[in-house]
Amino acid sequence: MKWHTQDIQLFLKERDYIDTVILPLYPVSFADDIQQTVAMTEFINLLSGQLEKQFKGRILMLPGMSYLKTISEEKRLADLIEWEKELISQDFKHIFYITSDSDWKTVEEQLDGGLIWMPSIPLDNMDDQYKLSILEDQVKQLLNVFVKKWQNND
Amino acid sequence: MSKNRVTRRQFLNYTLTGVGGFMAAGMLLPMVRFAVDPVLQKKGESDFIATNQKVADLTTEPTRVDYSFEQQDGWYSSEETGTAWVYKDENDKVVALSPVCKHLGCTVNWNGDKANENHFYCPCHGGLYTKDGTNVPGTPPIAALDVFPTKEVDGFLHLGKAEPR
Ligand code: FES
Fold first, then answer.
1. Chain A contact set for B63 (CB, 8 A)
2. A89, pLDDT greater than 70
3. Is the ipTM value over 0.85, yes or no?
4. What chain A residue is nearest to B52 in terms of C-alpha separation?
5. pLDDT over threshold 60, residue A139
6. Which atom of ligand 1 is nearest to the CA of A58?
7. What range defines the domain where residue A101 resides?
8. Which of B162, B5, B2 is nearest to B85 (CA)?
9. What is the pTM of this model?
10. For A126-131, which contacts have Cβ atoms below 8 Å and span 24 or more sequence positions?
11. Substitution candidate for ligand 1 out of B98, B102, B125, B145 with most atoms within 8 A of CB
12. Which is the CATH superfamily of the domain at B49-159?
């Protein structure tokens, strides 16, 4: 389900079936790494769109958390933990974060939810059909991650 | 002379009615267009979308066909993508099924579950469909997969809008 009014109606109605929530993490910087953060944000945005299509009936795809790279890592982690607390209190059985920003990998253990780190692939110069097949590949890989997690807990 | 002059009251009356009229028209016209527009839009031929799939290359094994198209959504257009599961049946007729699960809309996969070969499988809540798209009773989906109208243009597969069976 997307964070769209229509999808949320269905979400509220069929809540029992939608036990998984995904929060994309989008870095924002205006320094030397501005292009990198843009590429990461763009890539994760596209990928989470495809992912939502694959798993529409079981996941809720949140609009994503943007954060400034100038803010300290501790502060960012603290913010994410706030999100996590809220999501846990909403009874989601599975929580995932998806990002291209490797900063998060160093704090992975401090999170209850699973961190899916995908290195960003520069897609801007590709033709659509090719872009699509690359994203499909990535989604296929993630399919196994999700199915395994679901099977272990069911 | 002074008789022909417009009084302040008249002037205000005229202008306010005029402006009010414009505002009413501004609100009403789009509503009328909303109501009438779908009737004016042409349907049919142009709804078919070309894919990269050669019809001659299709077998009896369902293959995944991805396609993309421009979608006009309000005032901005976006690149939308879609998928179909396509195969030839015993009579060599092309069958194209929508991958959207009829339970809550996940994407189903052909042979997606090792325990259920030759079925479409939904990874979300274990929905199952036979090869022709019929839902297997006892699994969550309550209807068969939608079917795309198909046609062949210059050897390539074109897909229409998926319809419920
Ligand atoms: S969405 Fe396919 S079985 Fe629930």
1. none
2. yes
3. yes
4. A129
5. yes
6. 1
7. 5-153
8. B162
9. 0.80
10. A128/B68, A128/B79, A129/B52, A129/B66, A129/B68, A131/A46
11. B125
12. Rieske [2Fe-2S] iron-sulphur domain (2.102.10.10)
